[in-house]
Amino acid sequence: MKNKNSIILFIACSAVFLEALDLAIMNLALPLIQKHFSLQEEQSQWLQTIYVLIYGGFLIIGGKLADIWGRKKVFLTGAFLFLMTSVFAGNAASFESLFLCRAIQGLGAALLMPSAMAIITNTFTEETARSKALGIFSSFAAIGSGCGLSLGGIIASSLGWHWIFFINIPIISLSLLLAFVLLKPDRRPADHIRTDLLSGVLLSACILLLSYFIHALPALTQKPLLVFLFLLLISTGLFYFFNRTKNHTNPLIDFALLKANSAQIGNKTIFILGTFFLSYLLILSFYLQEVLGFSAAKAGLLLFPFSVASALISRFLLPRLIKRVKVIRTATLGMSLMFLGAFLLIISMGYGLFAPLVFSIACVTGAGMAISIPSLTVMALHQVPIEHQGVASGINTTAYFFGSGIGLSAVSLIMQLTTVFPTTTKQLIASTALLLLLTACAALYLFKKGFELKKHYFIIFILTATLSSQQFLSL
Question: Does residue 270 sit within a domain?
Answer without folding.
Answer: yes
